[in-house]
Structures are given as structure tokens and as C-alpha cells.
Amino acid sequence: MMPLNLQKKEKKRLKSELNRLFSLLDKSYNINWGGCCWLTYCLAENFDRLGIPYSLVIYDGEGNEEEARNNILDRYPAFPTGDKTASHYTLKVKGFGILNKSKGDPFILIEDVYAEDIQWIYDKGSWNNCYNFRLNEEIKNLVDTVFKIYEKEICKTSETD
Question: Where are the domains of the chain?
Fold first, then answer.
């Protein structure tokens, strides 16, 4: 798909809606207590579909970018997955900054990974059970809905220009 060319105003509105969603998901579903990698996968899938570039952000005080990237791309079950998961996962998106930021640990950025890579991290990872994984489809639907609303708005805006 051709990259979606979001204007500054549209990026700001989408980021605002996503931040509201992150707050809701954290308060209602403990998303940042075992579900942040799933949320990151859902976000990445939408950004991939829209052709918007991002980097994977892994919060971990001891992580090595090159090792993590190689482990992900080679599907080697070591940091940042398996029993060596990090404290938080999210995305840094061009024009948006870091989404669903975490306080605390330093982070590393992993370039050139995609939703399927993040899904592999999630599938092979060991997660905090405060988050109920049975909510995954509901979380995915909520994230997808936010993106679909903005896609429709962008299409309407471009039709009137």
C-alpha cells in the first residue's frame, strides 16, 4: 500500500485518540502489565498497512540493540522474548514520537521490524498475568477502530481538497 500522507493536524488528532485509548486500556485492562507487546503488535499492524514507518521500542536496562534485532529476525528465542522479555514494548513512529511511553528503564530502538516480528515476540514471550490475554481480540478491535475512523476522515478531507 502507498504510504498514507498524514498532515501535522491529522497526526496530532490520531496521536491524541491513541493516547486516550492507551489510558483507557491501562486503567480497564492493565495493558501495561503484560499486554503492552500485544498492543504494540496491534499498532504495528495498522502502521504497516498504512505504510507509516516506525521503530520498535524495548524498555530494558540491559538490552543490546544488535543482539535483540538479530534474535527477532532470526527467530531465536532469547532477549527480547521467551523468558527474557523486557519491561515494556511500544513503537516510535515518525511524526508521532514514542507512543504509550513507559517511565523508568532506558530503552533501545529496533529498526526494520514489522508487525509479524512483534507478533512472534508476543507469541514466544512470557508475560505478566495481570493482563488477561483473553482480551486480545477486543484490544485489537479497539485499536483497529481508532485507525479506521481516522482513515475515513482523511479520505473525506482529501475528497474535499
Answer: 8-155
